Amino acid sequence: MKLLLALALSCAPVAALAQTATADTPGKLPSGVQYVQPKDWTASKQGPALVFTSPEGDLRIVVADIGAAADAKDAVAKAWAVVRPGAAPALRTSIDAPAGDGWEERVSFAYETLPSERASRSATALRKGTAWTVLIVDGSAGTAAKRSAAMSVVSQSLRPAGFQKESFAGMTAHQLTPGRVKLLTDFVERSRQELEVPGIGFALIDDGNVVWQGGFGVRALGSPAKVDQNTKFMIASNTKGMTTLLLSMLADEGKLRWDEKVVDLYPEFRLGNDQVTQSVLVRHLICACTGLPRKDFGFILADKGQPAAATFTQLAATMPTSKFGDLFQYNNQLASAAGYVGGHILYPKMEFGAAYDRAMEEKVFKPLGMTDSTFDYAEGMAGNWAAPHGLDVDGKVTLMSNDFNWAPYPYRPAGAAFSTTADMVRYVQLELGKGMLDGKRLVSQANLVARREKGVQVGPDSWYGMGLFQRDASGVQVVTHGGTLMGYHSTWYALPESGVGLVILTNSDPGAQMLGPVLRRLLEVLYDGQPEAERDVAAAAARIKTQAKARRARLTYPGDAAVLGNLAGHYSDPSVGQITISDRNGQKWIKAGFVEGPLATRRNADGTVSVISVGPGNIGVDALVGTKDGKRTLTINDGQQTQYVYVED
User: Fold this and answer.
1) How many CB atoms lie within 10 A of CB 494?
2) What residues have CB less than 8 Å from 290, skipping those under 6 apart?
3) Which of the chain's ends, N or C, has fewer CB atoms near its CB within 10 Å?
4) Global pTM value
5) How far apart are CA 32 and CA 389, in angstroms?
6) In degrees to the nearest 10, what's the CA dihedral of 228, 231, 234, 238?
7) Distances, alpha carbon 181 to alpha carbons 177, 459, 521, in Å
């Protein structure tokens, strides 16, 4: 792996001069294009290109002044010729984005990579007038995931010469009158239809009061039942902020301190080695700043029925890959531990999951009046609930079962609650009221607001606190957190300075593309901003179709009979679980933990073959077929730093 990356990165001559930034450092290319060099990355010149190299040395971000070019494709080809002469990668897709941020044309390119490379490779062409600027990312996928914040700093800072960002700082927000509310609800319904989202729960708050709540569309395709404010959705990682709300209440009661060692509250807690374990404070469990990479496949691929205690088992075997407070790395197991420690403090004799469930019910859901919120799947999927939907192998929106979404249940403080629009409104009102709800103080302002204080940087205008993001959106402070599970995408926004809040819950994977534009539309309505939200939704709808078509073109489905016929019936990886290959309705099916579906095949550029699950939804298995010591294997990379090698039994 290291050799492959070294070869890839050595395709271009090494610059004679390199400078490492001690802080995010603004600069300008000779053309006047504005950029920011990220902290700890080394900058070097390579012809018309400025190359930022990660501290690990295996990832490059290239910003190239190309000037005149025939089109975006030509501009990108010229950039690759500078940084990888004679070794330009094979194109997978190119997607047009709407003009914006001062650029008159924006086109993104994705490239083929080999499974053995575990690489991240992309390009973006940006045009102002006749001049093109190209951004290239090339190198280790693991490092790209680890240093996603730095990548955001570079990509989001690129602006043409003289461009000034739109800012609403210091402006007074308009009141959400009925007319302005209608502008927003009409936008949501149009976006729902354009993105083919079956159902949406939506609410607006102004000056702390609910001015609109309800639903659009249906709970499930094929059913006439409508979504309303009491329809239950899975809210995924929105659960994290509720978990830290529980901790805030425990802090008020003197049962914990944010800067208290976790081992003083739960002595059996372990993270990596003894030195690291003794350094972990309560805030580190939920700050996304403790240096743990995302390890979602650790529970996605696990066998069903794992106990809540699996959270602590996995953490004990995991070492941070960066220093505390250094990088944004989002780890669900750590957030899960935060909730279970909170429950354990209150009910030390109960099983972790049961203690957490009881603590959340008694400390959060009941006091806030969140009467339909629950961690009980049977209750969540009964009555008025929205079923999940995803894209099938041909890109068509399809009703799915909710079986996959049992995966986070053992780690539910990080993201396995069911809730409704009406319940989420109560939660956002508490955030806007800084701990006050219905004239009653439920949590101190100090401990509530501590969760949203700027912590580790996520991007140039975004930070993670403790289970909450804080953003500077065009000069407006926004507190938020989103949630993603298969077929469920949701978020909420609180604008503390204006007292405005918004909740949006969707029951389809394309619904994820509404979450950013709905905030943009809110800002346009509140501050008379330039109209961008509508075009962003239209571009997202086109992008989804392009990506689905490109994915389908790379697959052989039904899969290559010779490849599928040579698969073993059962594989295992002791670190995570089992894979079963079976025949169902004349097709080969895979079951790997919580992923299940028919199999397609893909022949890779190096001659190897992969098998891919193609059940509906945006999460699946992509496994390289191979052998080890004479036994058949399937190898899955998690896109971060972990590789799972399943060997036939």
Assistant:
1) 25
2) 271, 280, 284, 320, 324, 329, 331, 334
3) C
4) 0.95
5) 46
6) 60
7) 6, 30, 11
